[in-house]
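[job 4471] stage=fold_predict status=RUNNING
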Amino acid sequence: MAEDHKIRTSVKIYGYTYKIVGAETSAHMESVASIVDKKMREIHAVAPSLDSSKLAVLTAVNTVHDNLKLKERVEQLENELRKLKG
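[job 4471] inference complete, writing C-alpha cells
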C-alpha cells in the first residue's frame, strides 16, 4: 500500500503519545494501543520498580507469548476440524 494511503493515528500508551502509521483503521490502532497500555499498567501493578523500558520489553514478551499460545490453539482446532471433515 502506498504511503499516501496509510492512516496516521495519535495514541497514548502509558502516559506517552505516539503517532502510529498503518493500513488499519484508526479505531483498530487505538484498540491495540489501549490493550498495550492496559497490559503495561497490569505489569506495573505487580512490578512497580521496573522502569518504562523494562516494562515495555516485559509487555512485549508477554504479548508475544499470548500470541504464540493463540496460534498453537488455532492450529490445534484446525487439525481437529480437518479430522472431523476427513
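[job 4471] summary: The longest strand covers residues 7-13.
[job 4471] exit 0
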